[in-house]
Structure formats: structure tokens, C-alpha cells
Write a structure and sequence with these properties.
The complex is a heterodimer of chains A (771) and B (115). Chain A is mainly alpha-helical and 771 residues long. Among the domains of chain A are: 268-548, no CATH class; 600-672, no CATH class; 720-771. Chain A is built from 32 helices and 2 strands. Chain A has a two-stranded antiparallel sheet with strand order 1-2. Chain A is elongated. Chain B has one domain (2-51, 68-103). Chain B has 3 helices and no strands. In chain B, helix 1 packs antiparallel against helix 2 (25-46) and helix 2 (25-46) runs antiparallel to helix 3. Chain B is elongated and about 60 Å long. Chains A and B meet through helix 25, helix 26, helix 27, helix 28 and helix 29 of A and helix 1, helix 2 and helix 3 of B.
């Protein structure tokens, strides 16, 4: 019984029913649909002890010959991700009901949200490379629909397309990378890869494969230079931002890095690329987060920073770094999911997310205020919250790096100072000071909007005070997915004593407060530095998107300008190029053995010359009649060849058909005008060159082909059986009327259809409309 | 002999391709016919030509040694007849096109709309 497959399929079924459920149950929809993620959460909690020390495997075959199977596996890492997907998913479903209250398209929204949820579960549970990829792409597609949910706004549509194009392009790279990986490792089963680490890492194609896989992971997890789609994705309704673009989907790339970590990590290439890109993304996100005024944008950039941190930690790849990554992953999902939902609540009740307008909400929105403060304190790494535990571990990991330890630590501290300052901006500007002149009069959100963040913030406190619940439990099981042979048992603690990480934490907090105090004066400076983004990836993308249709149009105008001759020209040239490429990469030895199977006699050469002259004459003549006559000569000379080389049947057919065609041509087209000599000399010359090249190609092909001995099993069969089976002496005739009789009947049918068509064209006149 | 035939076929192909790139419908049809001839001769050559012994069985057993290969001949026979069918239809078609549009120039027929 493949329980996991069943759970995912149920999810797809619930998604398909969402629109109908909304039509029937109206306002009760969120609670009904939330039963699905709630059920998942309960199921995954019940498996906590089952995944202890070993993975649960569920297998069903799909396309076993290609190694594509419905294989799922539940281990510590999958379970951690599955709990995040289903747990936060439960709150998001309820939250969306309040946030989009009264929206008539709510059913459609849930359709895509649940589609995403099931696909995301598939990503984290799949044990087959191709299966993982399919779910991976499904998350990109559902993300596209969710970002573009407010599709009447151009901004939403552009952002949705941008996210889809970038993650989609990364997805293609990932597919190529995964196929390479499967070929190198000789298995498509993810859990079998870990035993192949040596083979994989020593393979010649390892660097190519790694870069392709990383391109997929980096686009999905918004790493520089692909990060810019994530702030754009904030055009989505806030439940989507909270769920897809902070807690789950953007972590799919991180999950992939983690899942492939045992097989791919540890090489200088892995450490170099993953750590560098992660650290740079972390710094850039932290730097940009305090410069924004939109609550969601601030959170988006701090999410990019957090994703960079996770990537960097997996790049470092030591046991300590992995432990840290798993801790930070949970901590971040808890506080960032909460913060997005809270920001959405503020937006929902006040009508704005601009920190320059907001203010003094501490009295009117007390629950939101408390939950936000807790989440922000966790984000800033202040004890006794879970974020503090994670942040201490981050510093500990960077300090224990083999190389560039202090540089990386400094980068981490700077990034955290930026994020910390952004946190202070959110708290102080939104909740303190005079009440802002907001579009709507502020009051506390309904319970559906605060229940999720309050629970998540509460968990940040719980795990902060008692981190070992997680540390020696689920974290320990997830950790052993990376290091199955390690006997290390993890214990998380809030207090590590007076060591360097603690001092760095103090520096971070003080630095954040300092940056907050001066940040308004720094904004003009930052703006000037920001001009560098003119050559940044987002502008490149925008220019590319604008240029694409223009260039495509130009290319179409050259290749497909509506003129048949032109198409033929391009087809011919392309055919020639592919012929050369095919020859170049094939194993056919190009030995043109001059196989004079028998020497030509003088009249045979004479006939050939005549044939060539007639052919060129037909092509060059500007007289219609002359062309037809030349073509007739070609046909008759070929018939003579047939006689000379033992094919009297062909010769007879050719003579009669050729005569018929010439008569028909002359009769039918004598009325037409002379050939109009409108082609320029240049065109004539170009066409002549192209034709000559094609002719030469065919000649070479024939010479190459005839330099091999002919092996035919059919000819001896016909030769032996013509008399025995068909009682005939003329083998060609017997083939046509007996062995291949059905073909000949088809041929007769073609002639009849051609005759009918010709008759219709000459005799039937279409009636003019209206008569 | 193979090489002589190979060069001849190359010239036929070149002439055919040159003709189908002209603006005139007539040249187009003649070009297609030319390519048809070239391809038939190519199949014949690729089946290896032999001089003067048709594939006809004398007696009750198989073909004599050195007889021509019957298989390419059967293929070409079919191709000649089908080629004629296509050509006949095409001739009638351009005649009709000319009577409707009063033109022999393919380039003027780039629209699907009746004017």
C-alpha cells in the first residue's frame, strides 16, 4: 500500500473539487478544505517515531523500463519538510479564507493552493529523480497561477510570467542535470545515490551535471543572480507569499541541495560555488531589506537573505553546518511564515503596507503587535527565541570553516545586521509613533488572520526555550539522512556560554539598532549605489523579454516570409547543414572507394553527358516549350539507361509515362504567359550555388553508399520464391502484383484520387456567393 | 559506372532544386518532375547496376547469377506511376490557378484571402 502516493493523489482530488466546494459551502469552504492539510499534519506527526533511524519506503511501478516509478520515501528530512508543508498549509488555508473573504474566485484560489500543496509534498517525499522533477515543475506552474491570481493587473501578470520563466528555465537545466546524474550513477532512485558518491564525484561529467542541478536549485530558491523574481512574486495575495514564497516552495531548492548533499557535496567545486553564491545572496538580501518601505518587500529581501544563509550552510557542508541549516530552516519557516501573514493582516485592516504611512497600531491591533514582535525578535536572533539558537549556530558554523572563516563570518554578521535593522523598522514604524493616515480605519484582524501567526510565533518561543524537543527528535533524524554512519547525537541548547558566537550576536543586535537609527540618513547613499542595478540581472531580464518578440519577428521575416521559394531555400540550406553535421558526428567512414563495378562504355558516358545537358537546359531555358522538351529528353534518356542496365519493365513504363506527361504539359499550359524574368541576377546566382551544393551532396552520398557492399535479404527471397510461390518468371511483375499486391492497389487508388481531383478542377466551377 | 551515374544524378538534383526555386508555377512542376527522375535513378544506382540481365527467371529456380536486382525496380515502377499522378494533378491545378488569378508568379499568391 503506497500511503504517500495515496495522500498526494487525495490532495489533487481535493484541489479539483475546491471550486465546487466553494460554490456549495460558500463561507465554510476554508474550514472544510483545511481538513486535508490538518489530516496530513496528524499523519506526519504520527510517523515521527517511525522514521527514527530508518526511512519508510513506498514503491509502485510506473514506467519501470525507463526507471520512472512512484517511489516515495519518508525519512527525517522528508518528514521535516512534509510537516512544514502540511502544518503551515493548514494555517494558510484558514488564513486565506479570512484574507480573501468574499472573493468570488476563492474556489479557484484554493484549487491552485491545494495543487501546490500536493505537488510540494510530492517534491519532498519523492524517492525517484524523475518523479521529483515532475512535482518540482508542478510547483512552478501552481506558483505561476497563484502569483497571477489578480490577473486583471498587469503587474501581477508580469510578475507571474517572470517567476515562471526563471524557475522554468532553471527547471529545464535541472532536468538535464538530473538525467546526467541518473546516467552517471546508474540509478534513478534518490536513496540509492548516496552509495554512489565516489563514482559520481569522480566522473568526468560531474562538473557539468553539478552546474545544471545547481542552476535548478538556485533559480527555485532565489539565489543571486536569479533572486529578483521573488520580490516580484509579492504581487501574489499574501497567503501565497507566506506559504509558497517564504515557508515552502522557495525551500524546494534548498531541499534539493540537502537531498543530493550526501551524493554531490564535499568537492572543491561544490563548496566553492554553493558557499560563495549563498554568502553573496545572504549579504545582498540583508543589505537590500532595510531599504524598502513595503512590508512584504522588506520580508521578501530578508527571505532571500535567509535562503542565501541556508545555501551557504549546505555549501560548507560540515556536520555542524548541516545541523545549523536544519535548525535555521525550521526557525526561519516559523518566524517568516508568521510575519508574512501578519503583514497581510495589517494590509487587510489598514489598506496599506507602506511603513511610511503606517504607525501606532500597537493599541488598535494588540494581538498582531505581540505576534509580530515575537517573530521579529526571533528573526533578529534575540534570546530566548528559536531564531537566537539558529543564529548562534550560524556563527559557530562560519567560524569553524576550513578557509575564509572570518570573511564569511563577517558577511553573516553584516547580513544579519541588515535584517535586524529591517526588523526594527517593521516594529517601530508600524506599531509605535502617531497613528498613520491609513486608507482604512485600523482595528484588530478577525481570528482567522491571527490564529496562524500566533501559533507559529508561540512555537518560536517554545522551541527557543526548549530547543532540544526538536534537536534530539526530528532534527536528529534529519541529520542522519546526511550522515547515516555518524553516531553523533544532536542536542540543541539556548545557552552556550560566553563564547565568540555570543559576542557576535551582541554585535549583531547593537549593529542592527545602530543601523536602524541612522538608516534614514543612509537611504540617499544607498539609492546612489543602487544605480548599479542598471546592469543587474533584473534589467537584463527585462531587456531580454522586450527584445525577444522583436528578434523572433525579424527571424520569422527572414525564414518564413510567406514565399514558397524562400521556404525551399531555407529548407535546402538547413538540410545541407544537418547533413554535414550528421556526417561529422556519425561513425560512417568517409572512404570514397571508386568502385568501378564495371567500366562505363563510351555511349554510356555520352548518354550521361546528354542527360546533364538536358537537365541544365531545362533549368536555364526561359522558354516554356524548350523546358518541357528538355525534361522530355531527360525522361527518355533515363529510360534508355533502364534498358541498358537490365530493367526493361521500367523502361517501358518510363517511355509511355514520359510521352503522356509531355503531351499533357504542352496541352495544358500552352496558354500560360512566358516565364517572367523577374529574379535578379544575384538571386539566380544564389539559387544556382545552393542547387550546386545540394547536387554535390547527393553525388557524395551516392558514392559513399555504393562503396559498401550491398546486403539485401529481400532480393534473394523474391528471387527464390517468385517461381515456387507465385508461379511467375518476371520477378518485378510478381513483386508488384503478388508479394506487394496491396501496395499496388493503394497506388491505383492514388491515381484514381488524382484523376477525380483533376476532373473536379477542370469541370466543376464553384458557385459565387449570393448567386 | 557508379561514379558516372552519381555525378549525373547530382546534376539532375541541382537542376531540379534550381527550378523549384523559380517564381513560375510551370518551372516548379518541371522541377518536381526533374527531382522525381533523379530520385528514381538514385534508387536504381543504390541497388547496384548490372549490365543487361533483366530479373527474369529461366527454369524453376532463382534468378541467374549476375541478374539485376528486382527490388529497386519494383520500387521505381511504383514511383514513376505515382509521380505521374502527382504531376498530372499539379498541371491541372496550376491551369486552374492561372484561370482564376491570371498569374504564373508564385510570389503573388502569398495571401489566403480571395481578393
Amino acid at each position: 500500500m503506497n500511503t504517500l502516493l495515496a495522500l498526494i493523489l487525495i490532495g489533487f482530488a481535493v484541489a479539483a473539487l475546491a471550486v465546487s466546494v466553494h460554490k456549495i459551502f460558500k463561507a465554510a469552504t476554508p474550514y472544510i478544505l483545511a481538513l486535508y492539510p490538518l489530516g496530513l499534519t496528524v499523519y506526519f506527526f504520527s510517523q515521527l517515531s517511525a522514521v527514527h533511524h530508518h526511512a519508510l519506503q513506498f514503491q509502485s511501478s510506473w514506467v519501470p523500463s525507463l526507471g520512472i516509478n512512484f517511489d516515495f520515501s519518508l525519512d527525517g528530512l522528508s518528514l521535516l519538510m512534509a510537516l512544514l508543508v502540511s502544518g503551515i498549509g493548514t494555517f494558510v488555508v484558514i488564513y486565506a479564507g479570512g484574507y480573501l473573504h468574499g472573493d468570488e474566485n476563492l474556489g479557484k484560489f484554493y484549487l491552485f493552493l491545494l495543487l501546490f500543496m500536493s505537488a510540494m509534498l510530492g517534491v519532498v517525499l519523492a524517492d525517484n529523480i524523475i518523479l521529483l522533477f515532475i512535482f518540482w515543475e508542478l510547483t512552478s506552474i501552481s506558483s505561476f497561477f497563484l502569483i497571477g491570481y489578480k490577473h486583471k493587473y498587469e503587474d501581477s501578470r508580469d510578475s507571474a510570467l517572470q517567476a515562471l520563466l526563471i524557475t522554468g528555465a532553471g527547471g529545464l537545466a535541472l532536468l538535464a542535470g538530473l538525467i546526467l546524474l541518473a546516467q552517471i550513477a546508474g540509478t534513478t532512485q534518490l536513496s540509492a545515490l548516496i552509495g554512489q558518491a565516489d563514482i559520481i564525484q569522480n566522473h568526468a561529467l560531474y562538473p557539468v551535471m553539478l552546474i545544471l542541478v545547481l542552476a535548478g536549485a538556485f533559480t527555485k530558491s532565489a539565489q543571486f543572480p536569479f533572486h529578483f523574481w521573488l520580490p516580484g512574486a509579492m504581487a501574489a495575495p499574501t497567503p501565497v507569499s507566506a506559504y509558497l514564497h517564504s515557508a515552502t516552495m522557495v525551500k524546494a531548492g534548498i531541499y534539493l541541495l540537502a537531498r543530493l548533499h550526501p551524493a554531490l557535496s564535499g568537492t572543491p567545486l561544490w563548496i566553492g560555488i554553493v558557499t560563495t553564491f549563498g554568502a553573496f545572496t545572504m549579504l545582498m538580501g540583508g543589505y537590500l531589506s532595510w531599504q524598502k518601505f513595503d512590508l512584504k518587500k522588506i520580508l521578501a529581501y530578508s527571505t532571500i537573505s535567509a535562503l542565501g544563509t541556508l545555501t551557504m550552510l549546505l555549501g560548507i557542508g560540515t556536520k555542524l553546518a548541516v545541523e545549523t541549516a536544519l535548525t535555521f530552516l525550521l526557525a526561519h519557516s516559523l518566524y517568516k511564515g508568521a510575519l508574512f501573514m501578519l503583514a497581510g493582516g495589517i494590509d487587510h485592516e489598514t489598506g496599506t503596507r507602506d511603513v511610511r504611512i503606517l504607525g501606532g497600531l500597537r493599541k488598535t491591533m494588540p494581538i498582531t503587535f505581540v505576534a509580530t514582535t515575537i517573530a521579529i525578535l526571533s528573526m533578529s536572533g534575540i534570546p530566548p527565541l528559536f531564531g537566537f539558537v539558529a543564529k548562534e549556530l550560524v556563527y559557530d558554523s562560519t567560524l569553524h570553516m576550513d578557509s575564509a572563516a572570518w570573511l564569511t563570518t563577517a558577511v553573516a554578521v553584516l547580513a544579519n545586521i541588515g535584517m535586524g535593522a529591517a526588523g526594527w523598522i517593521i516594529i517601530v514604524k508600524t506599531f509605535f509613533g502617531p497613528e498613520g493616515d491609513t486608507p482604512k480605519h485600523a482595528h484588530e484582524t478577525p481570528w482567522t488572520l491571527w490564529i496562524g501567526p500566533v501559533v507559529l510565533a508561540g512555537l518560536s518561543v517554545l522551541f527557543g526555550i526548549l530547543p532540544d524537543i526538536y534537536g534530539s527528535g526530528l532534527l536528529n533524524d534529519a541529520f542522519h539522512v546526511f550522515f547515516p554512519d555518524s553516531d553523533k547525537h544532536i542536542h540543541l541548547a539556548l545557552w552556550h556560554g560566553f563564547k565568540t558566537p555570543l559576542y557576535l550576536s551582541i554585535v549583531t543586535v547593537l549593529g542592527a539598532i545602530g543601523l536602524y537609527l541612522v538608516h534614514e540618513r543612509l537611504l540617499p547613499v544607498a539609492e546612489r549605489i543602487d544605480q548599479i542595478s542598471a546592469i543587474g540581472p533584473q534589467n537584463l531580464y527585462k531587456r531580454g523579454i522586450k527584445a525577444l518578440p522583436v528578434r523572433a519577428n525579424q527571424v520569422s521575416h527572414i525564414i518564413q516570409n510567406g514565399k514558397l521559394r524562400n521556404y525551399l531555400l531555407w529548407t535546402t540550406v538547413a538540410g545541407f547543414v544537418f547533413f554535414l553535421l550528421g556526417l561529422w558526428y556519425s561513425d560512417i567512414p568517409l572512404t570514397f572507394r571508386a568502385s568501378f563495378n564495371f567500366a562505363p562504355r563510351y555511349y554510356e558516358i555520352g548518354l550521361s553527358v546528354m542527360l546533364m545537358i538536358a537537365a541544365i537546359g531545362a533549368a536555364a531555358s526561359s522558354s516554356r516549350m524548350a523546358s518541357i522538351a528538355f525534361l522530355g529528353i531527360v525522361g527518355y534518356v533515363i529510360a534508355v539507361f533502364y534498358i541498358l542496365f537490365g530493367a526493361p519493365d521500367l523502361a517501358m513504363t518510363q517511355f509511355s509515362i514520359e510521352t503522356l506527361s509531355v503531351i499533357l504539359l504542352v496541352l495544358a499550359i500552352y496558354k500560360l504567359p512566358r516565364f517572367a524574368g523577374v529574379s535578379t541576377k544575384l538571386e539566380h546566382r544564389r539559387d544556382a550555388i545552393v542547387s550546386a551544393i545540394m547536387g554535390a551532396m547527393v553525388t557524395l552520398m551516392i558514392i559513399a553508399a555504393t562503396s559498401f557492399p550491398l546486403e539485401s535479404r529481400l532480393s534473394p527471397f523474391f528471387s527464390e520464391n517468385t517461381y515456387i510461390l507465385a508461379k511467375g518468371h518476371n520477378v518485378v511483375n510478381v513483386i508488384l502484383v503478388d508479394f506487394r499486391g496491396m501496395d499496388t492497389m493503394g497506388e491505383v487508388a492514388v491515381l484514381v484520387i488524382a484523376a477525380l481531383g483533376a476532373y473536379a478542377l477542370t469541370k466543376l466551377v464553384p458557385q459565387k456567393e449570393g448567386n | 559506372m557508379d561514379i558516372v551515374l552519381a555525378i549525373t544524378i547530382g546534376v539532375l538534383v541541382a537542376a531540379g532544386i534550381y527550378m523549384i526555386q523559380r517564381r513560375s508555377f510551370v518551372k516548379l512542376i518541371l522541377g518536381i518532375a526533374m527531382l522525381g527522375h533523379a530520385v528514381n535513378l538514385m534508387i536504381f544506382t543504390l541497388g547496384r547496376v548490372t549490365r543487361g540481365v533483366p530479373p527474369i527467371i529461366h527454369g524453376e529456380h532463382g534468378l541467374d547469377v549476375g541478374a539485376a536486382d528486382p527490388l529497386p525496380q519494383a520500387l521505381i515502377l511504383t514511383a514513376i506511376v505515382i509521380g505521374f499522378g502527382v504531376q498530372a494533378f499539379a498541371i491541372i491545378l496550376i491551369k486552374r490557378v492561372y484561370s482564376v488569378f491570371q498569374t504564373d508568379n508564385i510570389d503573388t499568391l502569398v495571401n489566403t484571402d480571395f481578393e
